[in-house]
Amino acid sequence: MARYPSDAPNLLIVDDDSTIQRLLEFAAKDHGWRPVAAGTGNHALELLDEAIEAVVLDHGLPDVEGMEVLSRIRDRFPDLPVIMLTGLNDAETAVKALRAGAADYLTKPFELKRLFDILREIRRERKEIPAPAATSTLPGSSVKATKALTSASPKVRELLRRLEKAAALNSTILLTGESGTGKTYFAREIHRLSPRSTEDFITVSCPALPRELLESELFGHERGSFTGATSSRAGRFEQASKGTLFLDEIGDLPAELQPKLLNVLQDREFFRVGGNKLLKTDTRVIAATNVDLRARVNAGGFREDLYYRLNIIELHIPPLRERKEDIEGLAGDILKRIAQRRGVEGWQLSEAAGAALLAFDWPGNVRQLENVLERATAFTDGTALGEKDLAPLLETRRDGPLGSSGRPLTLQEMERDVFIQTYHRSGKNKAKTARELGISERSVYNLLERHGLK
Ligand SMILES: Nc1ncnc2c1ncn2[C@@H]1O[C@H](COP(=O)(O)OP(=O)(O)OP(=O)(O)O)[C@@H](O)[C@H]1O
After folding, report:
1. What is the mean pLDDT of residues 365-390?
2. Using an 8 Å Cβ cutoff, are 380 and 346 in contact?
3. H-type alpha helices, 41-176
4. Same CATH topology for 154-318 and 322-450?
5. How many Å from the N-terminal Cα to the C-terminal Cα in the chain?
6. What are the domain boundaries of the chain?
7. Which terminal residue of the chain, N or C, has fewer Cβ atoms less than 10 Å from its own Cβ?
8. In a 10 Å sphere around its CB, with 0-12 CB exposed, 13-18 middle and 19+ buried, how is residue 26 labelled?
């Protein structure tokens, strides 16, 4: 037997302005909700019970602060979605509300349609996503097996706990962390663990394209909208409409495109370049940055309102030197991956080699660990990886190995450098070079040939 009568109110509207209250009640009925209204925070808290499916909460209430009401709602019903109504230009309150667990916010005056779109989405999600189980298996796992991520580092375990929760939501996520820490890797994991996992995961690197092309890449264009636009093209927001759009290096988004991104995040609507048809998107955005975006806002290089819209959930990925517990496991996984790719048996790290990896500072983070292991395994003959295989590779400067052009060296260039230096140091003695690099003389001949030194 149902615990509540079928006509029990299921949308709680909390606003002290009676006109807005009536308007919202009327519109709610129109959209298939059963509204109940309160004009004060205390009255709202009295009306709260399990039958309520969602709350629309005004920030400026006469008795209890809207934020306080939100926090009390969260205490009693942690999963109840609350949509906060805030004043114009009150981005700070909006962000505070989102951080305190509001499902979304709307700035007054707002379009009723937008409010009921959000509510419809909430209802859809709650129907589709089963409540999270006590174990670490995740919601949204009905299609793909979702192996829970693990880590030996308490910092990363906390990150993963938050990441798994965030994956189940639709909220925008900002991934922060130094270069090479795994922002792209974790963005993919969020998508894989999300209810969108069977849809597209599309990456756009903001600094990779000049402004005009980036605009067209993101939003698409109509034929003839700029020189070279010989046909119409859908942008990434259209292509990833049901999936996830990963915006890498968001700090480099040109100023001219920032308002357009803000609009699409706020209203889920946009125009193609040169287009006049308003298009809709349901994309989930994950953005990443390795610069301090807050500092960029303060310096005037990034819009504050966009920063707040992106930074709804921030997940910080610690540098490898702060999660050294993970080095051994990561190294093992990476070695397995290299062995699979090369179709060889694999390598065992000696104890001293493991200690050398642990002692290193890893300025280039996981990417550098991958490079070091790629290079070390390229030179060894056997299946054991010793300290001497790694030592020459663990002397990188803090800013990472850079070529004369200032860009990071490729693996092949690094291999060439290490080999040539050793070969010259040995007085072009092949046997000595082989011994020093821990490779066979045959490999020295091969490397001399590969690098054009023979
Ligand atoms: N937890 C992990 N397990 C296995 N591999 C990882 C992990 N984290 C990162 N990697 C690998 O490390 C490399 C660097 O990661 P990624 O490209 O995600 O870093 P990033 O933070 O996006 O770097 P950048 O800021 O330079 O774009 C990738 O090859 C990735 O697959």
Report:
1. 88
2. no
3. 41-47, 66-76, 91-99, 112-128, 154-168
4. no
5. 86
6. 11-128, 154-318, 322-450
7. N
8. exposed
Least confidently predicted of 138-142, 164-168, 169-173, 352-356: 138-142
Which tokens hold the place of 404?
A: 């004369």
Q: What CATH number labels 11-128?
A: 3.40.50.2300
Closest CA to 182 of 145, 155, 144: 155
Question: Which atom belonging to ligand 1 lies closest to the Cα atom of 177?
Answer: 21
- What is the dotted CATH code of the domain comprising 322-450? 1.10.8.60
Bridging pattern class, strands 284-289 and 244-248: parallel
8 A C-beta contact, residue 382 and residue 400: no
Which ligand 1 atom is nearest residue 151's CA? 1
Centroid of ligand 1 to alpha carbon of 288 (angstroms): 12
- What is the per-residue pLDDT across 65-119, written as a single tens digit (0 to 9) for each? 899 999 999 888 888 899 988 876 666 777 777 777 788 788 777 788 888 888 8
- Where is pLDDT greater, at 90 or 164? 164
d(CA 366, ligand 1 centre) in Å:
6
Class of the domain covering 154-318: alpha beta
pTM: 0.61
Q: Which atom of ligand 1 is nearest to the CA of 317?
A: 21
Per-residue pLDDT tens for 278-296? 999 999 999 999 999 999 9
What number is the ipTM of this complex? 0.97
The residue whose CA is least distant from atom 28 of ligand 1 is 367
